[in-house]
Design a protein that fits this description.
Elements lengths: L2 E6 L5 E6 L5 E5 L4 E6 L27 E2 L21 E2 L13 E8 L2 H6 L10 H11 L10 E10 L2 E10 L5 E7 L2 E3 L6 E4 L5 E4 L5 E4 L11 E5 L5 E6 L4 E8 L3 E6 L1 H7 L11 E15 L4 E3 L1 E8 L2 E2 L2 E2 L1 H6 L3
Antiparallel strand pairs: 1-2, 2-3, 3-4, 5-10, 6-7, 7-8, 8-9, 9-20, 9-21, 10-19, 11-19, 12-16, 13-14, 13-15, 15-18, 16-17, 17-21, 18-19, 22-23
Length: 334
């Protein structure tokens, strides 16, 4: 039977340990509602955690799988990537309307709005406008700014099964006023060597380059490879993306629903040295490939609920003439 236990970390924080019969396990921190570890049946770590990560408020945890809400990026007075990753979550004893997770090791968590959250988050109404105007709205120059505060409930179900980590986030508007928000799951993946990694599934797509003031470009490469800093928001992305680690002969498949954007980020050497809670050489063994709703914020009317879904799966890759066969990775012919 799947196991689900609560342990106290050395830093005094509470963690939920999820495990399943084949031997894989995950650890979830109540601080941030965040997955901080995911290991396969051979106890190999699959998520990056910074060698300088801080596990207590007010600093967000650098690594694992942070939940970014109600914004992604750095706009206005909110903390970068929102406040959800800087708050203590609670166990959700009523995760309806999700069905019971009978065959998986699962934990349901909830974050409800507080007066302090609402003071720093003036919810903006976002209608059908261009991405440019959406971006401008987050700089407080949008036509409609709601100065009143709205309440919300952010729920997340985290489950593991053999070779798979599943996260189902939900945001519910519990207020009579509409509001809009951004959302992202930041996936800090642990890789053998960033220079030996490639990302497939984003070719020919448009992206916003955060290193070029969010200028829009079209991806020209057959696959994304890494030889310097990268920070891009890919638009209208497919439901499946493959992250291929040549050295480990392993592929991580990212499947997502309800989150049309994908962020690809690695700080490289110079930026890594400027990040206080990241080791100088950490960039060589990490890569963020995120699921998100970022370009166009989600508008929720009163009593409405938004739901997303993300699955990270481990696929054992094989070499063919020294190269992985991308058809097997992208189209499931394996």
């Amino acid at each position: 039977m799947p196991l689900n236990t609560v342990v106290n970390g050395r830093d005094g924080s509470s963690r939920i340990v999820l495990s399943e019969p084949s031997g894989s396990r995950a650890e979830v921190s109540l601080y941030g509602g965040q997955v901080v570890s995911w290991k396969n049946e051979r106890r190999e770590q699959l998520l990056y955690m910074s060698t300088k990560a801080q596990m207590k408020p007010p600093k967000a945890i650098r690594g694992g799988l942070p939940i970014c809400f109600p914004q992604f990026g750095n706009f206005g007075a909110l903390e970068r990537h929102g406040f959800a990753r800087n708050r203590f979550w609670s166990f959700d004893n009523d995760p309806s309307p999700l069905p019971p997770a009978n065959q998986q090791s699962t934990v349901d968590l909830v974050l409800k709005s507080t007066e302090d959250d609402l003071k720093i988050w003036p919810h903006r109404f976002v209608s059908s406008v261009s991405p440019f105007h959406v971006f401008i709205s987050w700089l407080n120059i949008q036509f409609h700014v709601c100065l009143c505060c709205c309440s919300f409930e952010l729920r997340v179900r985290i489950s593991i099964s053999p070779g798979k980590l599943t996260i189902i986030p939900r945001v519910r508007n519990t207020d009579p006023k509409a509001f809009s928000f951004m959302f992202a799951l930041r996936n800090y993946l642990y890789v053998s060597d960033i220079s030996e990694v490639r990302v497939e599934g984003l070719e020919t797509l448009d992206y916003l380059d955060n290193l070029m003031r969010r200028e829009r470009f079209t991806e020209q490469a057959d696959a994304i490879t890494f030889d310097g800093e990268i920070d891009r928001v890919y638009l209208n992305t497919p439901t499946k993306i493959a992250i291929i680690d040549h050295e480990r002969k392993r592929t991580i498949e990212l499947r997502k629903e309800g989150m049309p954007n994908a962020v690809v980020w690695n700080p490289w050497d110079k930026k890594a040295k400027s990040i206080a809670d990241m080791g100088d050489e950490d960039y060589t063994t990490m890569l963020c490939v995120d699921s998100g709703a970022i370009e166009t914020p989600i508008l929720l009317k009163p009593c409405e609920e938004w739901r997303g879904r993300q699955e990270l799966s481990i696929v054992s890759s094989s070499y063919c003439s020294g190269q992985l066969d991308p058809r097997k990775v992208l189209y499931g012919d394996h």
